[in-house]
Amino acid sequence: MRETFRPETGPEAGTLGAAVEHGARWLAYASGACLFFIVVLTCASIIGRAMLTLGLGFGPVPGDFELVEIAAGVGVFLFLPLCQLKRGHVTVDILSGWFGRWGVAVSDLIGNLLMSIAAGVILWRLIAGLQDKLGTGEESFILGIPVWSGYALSLVGAVSFLLVCLYTLYRSWAETTSAAPGQA
Fold it and tell me: For 153, which of 73, 81, 86, 145 is 20 to 30 Å away at the CA?
C-alpha cells in the first residue's frame, strides 16, 4: 500500500496563513480559559456544598450550572477554528493510501467544502437564535443572565470558524492544483 500524502500541518505559510493561525490559536487559549473556569467553578461549588453539610457557613456557588452551560458552549465554539485549521476533525483514511497525492488533496478539498457549508449553516442558525433571544429578553433563572449573552459570545467563535473553513478551502484548492492527477 502507498504512503498517504498529508500536507504539513505545522505553522501556516504566508502572511494570511500566519494571521489565521495566530487568531485561531488565541481563540483556543480563550477556549482553554473557559474550560479552566468551569473546572474552578465546579470545584468551588462542590467544596461549598461539602462545607454546607458541615455547617461551616459556606454553600455552593449560586447559579453554577448556568455559568457552566454558557462557558461550555462558548468554549466549544472558540476551539473550532484551530481544530479546523490543524485538520483535527475526524477523517476516514482507510482508502487514501490508494488515491495518491492528488486523490487525497481532492478528498480534503471536498471535506473542506462540506465543512465550510456546515459552518455557514451553524453561523446562520446561531444568528437566528441570537435574534430570537434578544427579542424575548429571556434570562437565566438564578443569576438573571440574559440568555442572548451566551449566543453573542459564541458568535465570535462561529464567525471565526467560518473564516477558517474558507481559508482551509482555499488551502485545499492550492494543494489540489499543485498535485498532479495520478501522482503517488
Answer: 86
Reported as a single tens digit per residue, the pLDDT across 14-27 is 899 999 999 999 99
For the stretch 115-171, pLDDT in tens is 999 999 999 999 999 999 999 999 999 999 999 999 999 999 999 999 999 999 999
DSSP string, 118-156: HHHHHHHHHHHHHHHHHHHT-B-TTT--BTHHHHHHHHH
Q: Is residue 169 part of a domain?
A: yes
Q: Say what the pTM is.
A: 0.85
- Could you tell me if 120 and 162 are in contact, meaning their C-beta atoms sit under 8 angstroms apart? yes
Establish if 5 belongs to a structural domain.
no
Rounded to 5 degrees, φ, ψ at 146 are -60, 130
The torsion angles phi and psi of 26, rounded to 5 degrees, stand at -70, -35
